[in-house]
Amino acid sequence: FEDDVDDFQGTIGSSPARDAAGPGRVIASPNADLNIVSNRAAEPVGSNGYSPAAFNTLNAEGKNPQLANGVQDVINQIQAKCQAKGGPISVALVGHGVPGAIQIGNTRITLSPRPNTNDMTPAQFHTAIDKIAAGGNAGAQCVKAIDFYSCNTGRNTPGQTQGTDFLNAMQ
After folding, report:
1. Which of the listed residues 75, 84, 160, 165 has the most CB atoms within 10 Å of its CB?
2. Could you tell me the mean pLDDT of each successive run of 10 residues in the chain, 171 residues long?
């Protein structure tokens, strides 16, 4: 994974192409029991190339990434992995972000769900992944750690606290 500060990694609409001479740093890919990446095929038109690049990187490293079309897919995959393992797992979730939200496919985990969508609040998402839902270990802890890989999810805009509020809601 590469983090390019104040630089375009992919292009969105008419935005300029990535400046290869700009600032950047390489960060280690996630080490998690389950790596889930937003499926670009389910993302809104105009999404950049982060999701396929992240998926390809994780796949090349042998980390068996899974695609998700939306937040419910993420929940289903987490629950299945917890049930199969019989105990808590670590999760890396790769998607697109704005302050206080992460988008997976066509839905978001957000403090402000959009009308007429299947968006979830952090509290709803937390409840859905907190305990193993079925099987012999139903009710046991499901997720021991979740890391979000996205732009701006934990960021606050001037005078606002949506990034901080999102992260606090996920603790």
Report:
1. 75
2. 44 48 61 94 79 88 94 97 95 92 94 94 94 91 93 88 90 81
Dihedral, CA of residue 1, residue 77, residue 69 and residue 163, to nearest 10: -60
- Spatial contact of 15 and 8, defined as CB atoms under 8 Å apart: yes
- Residue 83 CA: distances (Å) to CA of 1, 30, 123, 135, 150: 29, 22, 21, 6, 27
Could you tell me whether strands 101-104 and 96-98 are parallel, antiparallel, or unpaired per DSSP bridges? antiparallel
Q: In what order do the strands lie in the sheet with 89-94?
A: 66-68, 34-38, 89-94, 143-149
Strand 25-26 vs strand 2-3: parallel, antiparallel, or unpaired?
A: antiparallel
Dmax over Cα atoms in the chain, in whole Å?
A: 54
Strands 89-94 and 34-38, bridge-based pairing? parallel
Is the pTM for the entire model greater than 0.90?
A: no
> Helix, strand or coil for residue 101?
strand
